[in-house]
Amino acid sequence: MMSEHTSLGFCSCPEKSCDLFLTQNFTTFSFYILAWDRTKTSVMMRPQAWRAICCLKFRVIYLLLTLNVVILLMYGDNYLRTRDVTKGKSTTRVAKTSCSFHSLSPKEAQVAHFLKHSIAWPETLSLPRHLFLNDTSDPAQSTFTILPHKRGSWFVGDQLEVLIKVSDFYGRPKTSGGDFLLARLHNPTLNAGVAGRVFDHRNGTYTAVFPLLWEGSAQVEVTLVHPSEGIAVLEKLTREQPDRIYFRSFFRLGSVYKTTTCNICLNSSRRLCNYTDPSTGEPWFCYKPKNLRCDARITHSKGGFRVYLRPMEEELFQSGVNLKVSIPASGPAHIQVLSQFDFFYRSGFNFPGDFPGVAKKTMQFTPSGYYYQGAWRPLDGTTVHQFHSITAISQCLKNKAVHLYGDSTIRQWFEYLNHSLPDLKEFDLRSSNQTGPFLALDYANNILLTFHSHGPPIRFRVVPVSHLHYIANDLDRVVGGTNTVVVIGIWSHFSTFPIEVYIRRLLNIRKAVMRLLSRSPDTLIIIRTANPKALTLYETLTNSDWFSLQRDKILRAIFKRMKVKLVDAWEMSVAHHLPHSLHPQPPIVENMIDVVLSYICPKTENL
């Protein structure tokens, strides 16, 4: 048996030669090795037949191996994913497989999992197929009640609690949570206001909590932004129709021109131009135009909006019915707040916080700030100065380079500063007044002010592709230093996409900020948060306050504990008496700019 086994080479080849051939040729083809082992067993049982056909059999196997190697070299893995369709210097590629809105690296996916858990919305009852409006949350049938204080009176420094009960259109109490509510405490006479925090008890009741920060009247205001059933529809839209906002690109080469659809992801059998950013990995695709190369792309623009809703689902977003509608009070809607000195004298020289009979509240809330006499007062220890004169602003920005990056809410800050400083001269860069880029210079005071919009997805009219920049890449080109200020605001254009898209973008920006601070630690980085806005059906389906709130929470979490400053546009809008707007009204913007300038010039006096 041993002699037969030793003669199992390629037609009587020596045993060592057979082993050497197997080692060299079968290592990367394990399935052939298994087949060879089975064949050897069969041959050992029938040695005479094997010797007759071994040469022919192994020639066939060798030809199969050679054919596999040729196929591997010709078509490789890259062919299955992308294939270069241009020649010369162009590196644009045409994608051949489907993409994903949720694609993240393993490390990013781990971070995203934690972040998504931190913003998880209370689960609501699944929407029945035949949903009726009367079974959903009705702000007119719902009520809020100011809970009495144990001491009988409220003093500055106390916490006010308000119980909110949500009912349906029949007046029946809801038994589950998930409604989106906003709460505000204000005094119109004092031009004072503060945002409250709403706690969801997941049984149809909620508690709004407010710190009492001024003496005098304090009036409670509670608003139902969306019923829980509306939130379920918004979640379904993002899950099932993440591409409901789509984009266009114009291609031209000589007299040939085409316009095609673009997006973060295009799942189609059609050929795609892959414009994924090589530095950040941010994906972007367009359908390849017929008879044009991918590098013939000229412009980017918003293409349109398409959404599929059942008629009943549309009824969940009705202005004046269940879309940003106030909830009435059951009883008084205001309280009278006394000063701490009143309590001091009444209680035997104890301040409210020292009173032994008051148990610590389980629902604590400290807002980022509040308005008093129309001015924003932060509660994190920051002193905000009022920059009401041209001289004050110019002196603060003297010898400074201020770089603004983001969406139109950041462009609004550029416009405010540009209009406030007559010596700041804007250069005509032949750019759109919507998209930028913009550059303004005050030569005498050595002030440089710039604005760059963020890269796609961005819902502007028409943007030359040469103006499409990712913030992370722009930050890598900033020298930085003591006199450099970087302001970032990016949120609104990401609302219709799965949250992973926004997480990936912020993680890239975060890494770029870390690199900038590493090479220039004295650079000042300021982050603008999201803010609520006026809502219609269209605005709700594309840019709901609920979408903005989720992204606001993600932004705060990603930049937490970093050496950056926040401008809390969310609370500054909620706390103010003016109506919500995507682009906040001038008094709110003025307060935001005061916060920014106070970060730049913290020791300013006698403004």
From TrEMBL:
- Name-wise, this protein is NXPE family member 3-like
Q: Which InterPro entries match?
A: Ig-like_fold, Ig_E-set, NXPE4_C, NXPH/NXPE
The keyword tRNA processing is annotated on this UniProt entry: no
Per the UniProt entry, what are the Gene Ontology biological process annotations, in alphabetical order? nervous system development
Lipid biosynthesis keyword on record: no
Instruction: Tell me any Pfam family this protein matches.
Output: NXPE4_C
Residues in domain NXPE C-terminal?
Answer: 376-601
Q: Which UniProt key words apply to this protein?
A: Membrane, Transmembrane, Transmembrane helix
Which residue ranges traverse the bilayer? 20-37, 58-76
Q: Which family does the entry's similarity section mention? A: Belongs to the NXPE family.
